[in-house]
Amino acid sequence: MTNIALCSSGSSGSSSPAPSVGPSRANLNYSLGLPGGAYCLGMARTVVGRLLAQHGLGDMAELGVFAASELLGNAVTFTPGREVNLAVRWRFGVLRVTVFDEHPPHAESAGTACRAYRRKALATLQAVVDECGGIVGLTDAEKPLTGNRLWVVMPREAGRHYAEL
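RE: above sequence
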C-alpha cells in the first residue's frame, strides 16, 4: 500500500467538494488574534455573541460575552499595547473562553503579587461564574510562550443560571 492510498481525497476519484456541515456546537472552535487595546473589546463582544448564537448556544451568549469582555479587559489593562488572542470553543459539554496575553515575566515575588492583583481585578467575573457553576483560571502561558492564559469554563446550564441572577 502506498501513502497516497491512505489519503481519502486521493483515492475517491471524485472532484466534488465535501458538503458543508454548517455551524453546530460540535464545531465551535475559533481563535482570534487582536491587536490589543480597549478599542478591540466591542468588536470581540459582538463576535463572541454571534458565534454562540450561530452555533446553537444562544442561551449562553450573554454570559459568554460577559466572560470574554472581562478576560480581554484584564489582558489589555495589565498588558497595554500588546497583542492578545481570544479562543472560543465547545468541548466535552462545556464552553471554554480563553485569552492569551503577552504579559512580561516578573521576578518570582513580583509575579506572585501581580497575579494576585490580576485575580482581584477578575473578582466580579469570578463571583458570577462561581454562581453559574463554572471555573475561572489565570496561569502563566506554557513555555516556550511568555505571558498569561486567562480562561473561563462553563457548562451548558450556566447560561440559564446567569439569566436567573
